Amino acid sequence: MTASLLEQTGISAIGPATRSFDGVICFGGGDWWYHNRGHYDMQMMRNFSRLMPILYVNSVGVRMPSMREGRMFVRRVARKLRSLRRGLVRVETNFCVVSPLVAPGKMGGRISKPLLPPQIRWAAFRAGIRRPLVWVNCPAAAEAVDRLNPVAVIYERTDRSELFPGSDRNQIRQFHDRLCRRADLTLFCSELLFDAESRDCRNAMYVDHGVDFDRFEAAGLNPAGEPGDVRHIARPRVGFIGGIDSHTFDPPLLVDVARRLPQLQFLLVGACSLPAGWCQLPNVHLLGQRAYESVADYMAACDVLIMPWNSSDWIKACNPVKLKEYLAVGKPVVTTEFEELKRYEGFVRRATGGEEFAEQICRALTEQPDPDRMRQRVRTETWAAKSQAVLHRLTELGIQPAGIQTAKSA
């Protein structure tokens, strides 16, 4: 690593007793080709790739898709097959993505156990990684970790993955416990989970979500750049930008609120796994998933941004990345309750139930907050700052990057 980059990251020179790694193998929680690239693991890896080669492994799966999902089952299988056909791809300098051939679920895990590590070792070699730091977001990767001969292991505990619909809770919990004991460092982005589980880890650290601040601030300061598919939609606009899934989103609440406010237009931007026809209201516009690069523009095109979460145990321990993105855009925010909101007193409006939620939206429209104050709250909470904090902690543990190496062509 060059001296200038060492100075930029604040990492001191490597001492003789330090364990050094020359790249990161990240078992991601999503699929690079499909999911929103604002996720914790993807953003961290993008920042780490400024310093070293990265191999991002698309999720190896924590559940078996069910044919009872109907069209969603077909879409999930089709997405996975498209991802597998891509093989190993370089998507950015020093950043490669691979979709290994694995079978999800408990039985699939037994089949995949001996097949996964060789695939990852081959891809890592092609990416230029010989001494990897292994970063695990998806607990199902636990059994492959030690077969990759890692210099060190990081376990990212961003949510209660054992509560994911359709997953084997006992098996995922076993993987979680195993990773807590094995990992050199466990990262939490929820204070609730950190308080409950950090004592079970070898080393634990609270590092919550970051934000691509410049991108979202710029969109908020330039509302003229709104996407073409919303220009015909009348104002005021209320927006939700994110995955519309039953384990997080509250469909009855959204429908109730939209019915109470027929004079407002509701924009929902994101992949939806709910049954077809779940909402037929004329003032609710389901725009579908959009590329990460355009997400900020959709947020900026709204007058109020909302988070209508359900009250599940998943949500209680969540820390949605979109909260910081909403604040960076500078639009008023209305949300249901979750634990991490205690760190944002005075920056968001809270509501319980359809009547209160609708009332808070109306108040947000008439009592506009100071966007500069909102942006200031998250200005320093960038993904670059979060990745530097992790690198500093690794350094304290005697684990450091060996240097910048340009990966070979994949």
Structure commentary:
It is a single chain. The protein is of the alpha/beta class and 410 residues long. It has two domains: 3-210 and 382-401, Glycogen Phosphorylase B (Rossmann fold); 213-378, Rossmann fold (3-Layer(aba) Sandwich), CATH 3.40.50.2000. 37% of the residues lie in helices and 16% in strands. The chain has 15 helices and 16 strands. The chain has helices at residues 3-9, 40-48, 71-86, 105-112, 116-127, 169-182, 191-197, 213-221, 251-260, 292-300, 313-316, 321-329, 353-366, 371-378, 383-396, and strands spanning 19-21, 23-27, 54-57, 88-92, 95-98, 132-136, 152-157, 185-188, 204-206, 237-241, 265-269, 284-288, 304-307, 333-335, 349-350, 399-401. Strands 4-5-3-2-6-7-8-9 form an eight-stranded mixed beta sheet, sandwiched between helices. Strands 12-11-10-13-14-15 form a six-stranded parallel beta sheet, with helices on both faces. A two-stranded parallel ribbon has the order 1-16. Helix 2 (40-48) crosses helix 15 (383-396) and helix 12 (321-329) packs across helix 14. The longest helix is centred in the first third of the chain and has 16 residues, at 71-86. It is globular, with a radius of gyration of 21 Å. It starts with a helix and ends in a 9-residue tail after the last strand.
Summarize this entry quickly:
Helix content is 37%, strand content 16%.
